[in-house]
Amino acid sequence: MAFGGVSVFAGLNISGLFQPVSVQLEQQNAPLEPVPLDLSVLSLTAIQPSVPPSVSGPDVVPPWLASDQESETLAHRINEVRNLSSFIDTNAPQVAAAGDNPDARTTFILFDALRKLETLALYAAEDATPSASLGRLDAQFQQGLSEVRDFVKSAETKD
Predict the structure, then answer these.
(1) pLDDT digit string (tens) for 114-152?
(2) Model pTM greater than 0.85?
(3) 48-57, long-range: CB within 8 Å, 24+ apart, which pairs?
(4) How far is CA 47 from CA 22, 40, 44, 62, in A?
(5) Rounded to whole angstroms, how far apart are CA atoms 92 and 88?
(6) CA atoms within 13 A on the CB side of 47
(7) What region does 93 belong to: left with phi over 0, alpha with psi -120 to 50, or beta?
(8) How far apart are CA 89 and CA 137, in angstroms?
(9) Which of 32, 89, 97, 155 has its CA 20 to 30 A from that of 40?
(10) Cα pseudo-dihedral 32, 37, 39, 40, rounded to 10
């Protein structure tokens, strides 16, 4: 279609196709004009994990959104982790909150175990951590990682 001497097809201006080749080449070699980009869509703060509602009761707050864990200090967390006999705790409060859904229970158990491993790693990375403690921390971390691997192999899941 032509409007006012300009050919437009589906919102695109194609009138440049009907110019002499020399003019087309000049336009082709012309410096590009900057194109504005809206980068706000890349913001990680805008991404919120969605939690499907429970069909049998109230929504369950996943442990990664629980506010009480953020307020715990590393010193408090490391004291709890150092005294563990097992990293896999099927009776943790978050797991009970997951209800009977085997996928949710497995996810919450893994989150709890991985958070404990994270605590060991963060404590080992602290400058104030004595060098003499690093061997014990590493051994405990390796034990916990092995437990997590074994749990993943045998975890009960539905989906």
Answers:
(1) 988 988 988 888 888 888 989 999 999 999 999 999 999
(2) no
(3) 54/99, 54/101, 56/99, 56/100, 57/99
(4) 49, 11, 5, 16
(5) 9
(6) 4
(7) alpha
(8) 19
(9) 32
(10) 170
